[in-house]
Amino acid sequence: MKRSNQVHYSMGEATTKDEKRGLAAVEKLKNSGCDNVIFHLLDVTDPASVDSLVHFVSSQFGKLDILVNNAGIGGFNMEGDNFVGIVEGGLPDNWYKMLTQTYELAEKCIQTNYYGNKRMCEALIPLLQLSDSPRIVNASSSMGKLKNITNEWAKGVLSDWMSICPGYVKTDLNHNNGVLTVEEGAESLVWLVLLPKGGPSKCVFLIENDTSLSLYL
């Protein structure tokens, strides 16, 4: 992604499972006035796919200003009706009984949420270093808060990253039963991405009560 009037927009497997869906998203953006949008198919779990994106960005733009890691999956299955109940009544004490978990789902979750993020950062940092004001932003969920990590060393290392939880957004992950629309969820990401140079760089932003933005240093 570039801070100029041209934006490089890529969607991974976790956000669109086929090229048709990605192109439809680009068309929607263009209809809203974003003329300079380019789609590039990306699967963050596939090193060859990531390499293809890196080559494309390098050859077309020569550098990268902003990387937003937004790919993510839950690592479990849950019926849509259960998501509706959580939205209406809150998270019950026995919420874990509503989940269906398998080894394959857990492995895919780790490959996407951890290794996919890591792979994208390692592959694109050389291009980011060519920018005058590079930025990496990681979109996560409240389940990924550092307080859930017991290892103090890991907490210290991970605190160096800028992360944001955009709130409970309507996505495929929750069968579109979230509170916020995709557009509303994206507002906080755009705000963070466009912070001026010299702004906060080691912090976590969480959307609270679906409206307010809180900063955790």
UniProtKB/TrEMBL annotation:
<comment type="similarity">
    <text>Belongs to the short-chain dehydrogenases/reductases (SDR) family.</text>
</comment>
<dbReference type="Pfam" id="PF00106">
    <property type="entry name" value="adh_short"/>
</dbReference>
<keyword id="KW-0521">NADP</keyword>
<dbReference type="InterPro" id="IPR036291">
    <property type="entry name" value="NAD(P)-bd_dom_sf"/>
</dbReference>
<dbReference type="GO" id="GO:0016020">
    <property type="term" value="C:membrane"/>
</dbReference>
<keyword id="KW-0560">Oxidoreductase</keyword>
<dbReference type="GO" id="GO:0016491">
    <property type="term" value="F:oxidoreductase activity"/>
</dbReference>
<protein>
    <submittedName>
        <fullName>Uncharacterized protein</fullName>
    </submittedName>
</protein>
<dbReference type="InterPro" id="IPR002347">
    <property type="entry name" value="SDR_fam"/>
</dbReference>
